[in-house]
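Re: [ENG-882] Designed sequences occasionally contain unexpected residues at chain ends

Forwarding the minimal case from QA. Structure tokens:
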């Protein structure tokens, strides 16, 4: 009897151990299924045919796993659709979560901030170093904020100006907190143009004020005392007024010329032009001037340069400006060389002198409006400070480049290039031209 009872207990214990082992294995597989988010435990797997509530638990878990997978797929699809929609925008778009982690950043943002690579899921503070922008983020989260705000981002020695707009959005996955969507418009170029405009207005006002003040003062003196004024003083006053009136007129003409060059229709009239004849005629005229009588002017041109499609009046204006500067700012007896050659498919013209040269610190600014290396000396020589700026615009309108090379005590060389667009008339035979007459 005792053996029967012992055997029964052993059999029962064996079944109990097997039951526990099956349940333990089933629980492990269930946990693995949840972690992998993949419905497992099919009917042919261990633990699949366990009695009781296990089948309902398995079915409920599989349904939850499937539902979670569908929600995550829908969320990924929404984010992908949102990213695809915003990726084509020119404005930078930035989406951050409640913890300031970046969820979305389109290509325009990376164009504005080239260093911002692989920024998804990084904190905003690490990517964009701007206290003003972080304060704007908190202001948007806190409630009604400015609809738009101009912000400065310092990148090394440069500044990037953005016009930021922020709004709260509901999280796509139902998470707590709120997401913030920012649209950033790059206004750096506008800011630079505003600065240029302010400087231009200030410089024009200063340049106009000087001759006008002198003219006004001399005229007031003439009006009040012309009857008792000696004749030689009156002549000197009138000559001064005439000189500053001519300077004022020259300044206004240069301003109008610069305005026309910067307009939508700059008025270029390109025609077939022999550059050698144009430069030869110009240099002969320059040599006939009194100011050039004590300078040595030489000219050399590559004979391979033939007819070119350029505006001859504008090219003449370029060369006159460069030669006038060379004559004004070099001492008597200086040598001025004008040359033209073919180089890399372009015609390169150079005006070189052996004068005092230009300091290296001034070279980057030499083509800016109203920039003068020696302000007092330039005004005495009658310069307006616009000549080289006009030269730069004309060259660029022809599709060329302009630059300067100089060293103190060793002279200065101005270069400009013109595309080698030869006129079709160069290739035509005389018989063809004669038949069209």
């Amino acid at each position: 009897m005792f053996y029967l009872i012992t055997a029964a207990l052993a059999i029962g214990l064996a079944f109990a151990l097997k039951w526990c082992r099956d349940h333990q294995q089933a629980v492990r597989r269930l946990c693995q299924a949840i972690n992998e988010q993949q419905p497992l435990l099919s009917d042919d797997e261990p633990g699949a045919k366990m009695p009781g509530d296990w089948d309902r638990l398995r079915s409920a878990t599989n349904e939850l796993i499937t539902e979670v997978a569908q929600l995550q797929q829908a969320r990924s699809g929404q984010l992908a659709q949102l990213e695809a929609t915003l990726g084509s925008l020119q404005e930078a778009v930035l989406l951050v979560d409640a913890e300031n982690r970046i969820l979305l950043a389109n290509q325009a943002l990376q164009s504005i901030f080239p260093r911002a690579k692989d920024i998804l899921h990084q904190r905003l503070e690490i990517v964009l170093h701007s206290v003003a922008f972080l304060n704007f983020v908190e202001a948007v989260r806190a409630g009604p904020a400015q609809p738009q705000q101009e912000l400065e981002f310092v990148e090394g020695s440069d500044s990037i100006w953005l016009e930021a707009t922020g709004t709260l959005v509901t999280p796509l996955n139902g998470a707590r907190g709120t997401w913030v969507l920012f649209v950033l418009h790059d206004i750096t170029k506008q800011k630079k143009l505003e600065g240029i405009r302010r400087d231009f207005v200030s410089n024009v006002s200063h340049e106009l004020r000087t001759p006008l003040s002198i003219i006004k003062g001399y005229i007031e003196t003439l009006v009040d005392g012309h009857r008792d004024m000696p004749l030689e003083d009156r002549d000197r006053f009138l000559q001064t007024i005439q000189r500053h009136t001519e300077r004022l007129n020259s300044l206004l003409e240069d301003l109008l010329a610069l305005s026309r060059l910067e307009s939508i229709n700059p008025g270029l009239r390109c025609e077939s032009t022999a550059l050698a004849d144009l430069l030869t005629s110009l240099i002969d005229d320059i040599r006939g001037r009194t100011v050039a009588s004590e300078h040595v002017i030489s000219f050399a041109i590559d004979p391979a340069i033939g007819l070119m499609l350029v505006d001859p009046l504008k090219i003449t204006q370029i060369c006159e400006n460069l030669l006038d500067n060379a004559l004004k700012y070099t001492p008597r007896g200086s040598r001025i060389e004008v040359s033209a050659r073919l180089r890399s498919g372009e015609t390169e013209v150079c005006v070189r002198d052996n004068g005092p040269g230009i300091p290296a610190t001034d070279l980057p600014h030499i083509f800016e409006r109203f920039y003068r290396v020696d302000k007092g000396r330039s005004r005495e020589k009658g310069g307006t400070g616009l000549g080289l700026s006009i030269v730069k615009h004309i060259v660029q309108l022809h599709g060329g480049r302009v630059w300067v090379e100089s060293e103190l005590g060793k002279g200065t060389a101005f270069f400009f290039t013109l595309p080698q667009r030869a006129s079709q008339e160069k290739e035509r035979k005389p018989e063809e031209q004669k038949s069209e007459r």
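QA comment: On inspection the terminal residues look reasonable. Confidence is low (pLDDT under 50) at residues 423-437. Proposing we downgrade this to a documentation issue.
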